[in-house]
Amino acid sequence: YKVKQGKVPSLHARNQKRFFRMDSLGEAYLPVTLKAVIAGKQSHKPRRKIEGTRPLEEKVPASLLVDIQAKLQEGKGAGYVRWAKSFNLKQAAQTLLYLQENNLLEYADLEERTLSATDSYHKMSAEIKSVESRMAEIKMLEQQIINYSKTKHVFAEYRRLGYSGAFLKEHESDILMHLSAKKHFDKLGIEKLPSLKSLKSEYAFLLSRKKELYPEYRKLRDEMKGLLTAKANVDRLLNMENQLHQHNGHGKDDKVM
Fold first, then answer.
1. Choosing a second label site near 23 at 20 to 30 A (CA), which of 156, 164, 193, 235?
2. Confidence class for position 6, pLDDT limits 50, 70, 90
3. H or E segment at 204?
């Protein structure tokens, strides 16, 4: 939606020819009514489609909308104007549309969905990281097995010669490679080396699993981002309103004193 400032805010949907005023949608969408819904003082009663009218692509704001422009009209002074200007009207409209499209008309629902989506994303992310970690381990193990096999005969000869210094000097790189591979196996607690064939088979399975997980991972990531953004915007609006009320309260006390 686009938002046009005025005495009463007007909204414009994508396939709509002109702006429509919020008060033209009935009492359920008056700024004062929406404020009461947001405050939890009453429930939202969506407008019913009238027979013979075109479908409302221009669905109206639901209970989590904080109507900034309407608040500006209430004449609460410069402090309130600064509060309202700190939040972009277009951003508020985009948040509203997102909440509507996802049927998140109550704060508790938004909070629950956000927590659930974040938890699902982190679980999926952890699984993918586990798969990627194991894939990296397999690649390293494969290389160490190859190095070990390639230098095995050199080290055997080095040991047969009683760990000759001259032989070590001549074949130092191969011997160090062999010792490094053995150290790696010991660190992993491997007593019997797995075959390269079995490692390649496991790697292929993990790669396939990773490819299966990524579409769902991206979906969960995008869902989480959308919910976190919407919740952050709603929290910001509500928090600014609370801060304003506190500020106005202190201001009154100071004036009395």
1. 235
2. confident
3. helix 196-256
